[in-house]
Amino acid sequence: MSHSVIPPIILNTTLSPFSSRDHGHDNLMGASSDGEAMTLFLNKSGARSEETLRRYEREITRLTAFLYLELGIGYKDVRLKHLQAYLHFIQNLPQRWLMAGILPGQPNRIMFRSSIKSGKSTDQVIDVISSFFSFLEKNRYTLGNPASSLVRSGEKVARGNTIIRYFYDNEWQFIKECLEKLPSATPRERVESARTRFVLSLSYGLALRESELTGHTCSDIHPDNDDGYYLSILGKGRKRRQVPINAALQRGIIDYRRINGYSGLYGDSFPLAPKIRNAEGVITALSARGLRYWWKSFIDYCQSKATPAIKHRLQDLPFHTLRHTALTHLARKMDIEDLAIFAGHDSINTTSQYYHAEASRLKKMAADHHI
DNA sequence: TCTAACCGTAGTTGAGCTAA
DNA sequence: TTAGCTCAACTACGGTTAGA
């Protein structure tokens, strides 16, 4: 393995004066080294937005580190096989690439947090690499674009095959039992138990995203024109939707508000994800981080009561599991168009993921299907 | 019409800090 | 003491845009 020096990463208008691989000035951009070529590319791409610059800098730095440290080659020597090797590499990273100390000159920089998944994430890496080598080719820095033949997976998991983290029926039954048996011996435990029931029933009942739960209050509840109520949710992509609040959920909200000295269902800023501690008598909302902290505590409690099999399954299930579970259950009652509206999905392709839960049903139905 | 290129943002995680 | 906070740096996902 080679230990060539990586070209320094210098952004904005400052050009790198140094690279271990000087290729002369036989190109249209006047770059004399890989470092300069990289900088010129990032200057061009970074002009679009800070986010684009950040992503491009990260991907090109990673690729360059791989080329120099693992293969010992520069940009002009890169061929398709090297890029294919890189994609395999980032999907199966060795441990040392997940720790600091890889990049000379930046000893604290961690190159990867984890291996990159195949599919859309790897495709995004290919996008950047392809754009980079296209730039090098146009400017005659390289003879061709070795990335032009890279195949994006375009991978979209076939309907019914996504791995979605949701509670299986027996697990969901267990979760509900845990909810019923939450400790309530002390005042503190009673307060925490009541909040857990409140937050869980709202999250599940309305299939809310984490940000939607922490970002809305009872002031977002409104009466409809049919003696009912709905929650007006500003969701992902700044899209607003109205989700009906059924009678059972209404009662739950009113009960919990009463415990906390509020009356009625709506009309004030009582949060949907309340903190237990109040600040100067006012109950404010948990942050997203706070919500996860609460979620972990609840799951820890459930795990302490679970059988080994369920305990293992509950491990690492995030808060978002609740939304998946809720939508999975609703998918049994609603048609996909209605469910998409309920969930706030623009496309039913997204909603169709929630039909994964029916895999067991499909298995049963297909059991006798043979010649 | 197709797809490379690009973008916005939700979700995840860890470090370090604060205030009840 | 510790629940819960902010901040930062990421990955994943679901798109849109632009140009061939």
Automatic annotation (TrEMBL):
GO terms for cellular component: cytoplasm. Keywords: DNA integration, DNA recombination, DNA-binding. Its main location: cytoplasm. It is found in: Cytoplasm. Gene3D superfamilies: 1.10.150.130, Intergrase catalytic core (1.10.443.10). InterPro entries: DNA_brk_join_enz (IPR011010), Integrase-like_cat_sf (IPR013762), Integrase_catalytic (IPR002104), Integrase_recombinase_N (IPR010998), Tyrosine_recombinase_XerCD (IPR050090). The keyword DNA-binding applies. It comes from the Bacteria. GO terms for biological process: DNA integration; DNA recombination. Residues 163-367 form the Tyr recombinase domain. GO terms for molecular function: DNA binding. This is Tyr recombinase domain-containing protein.
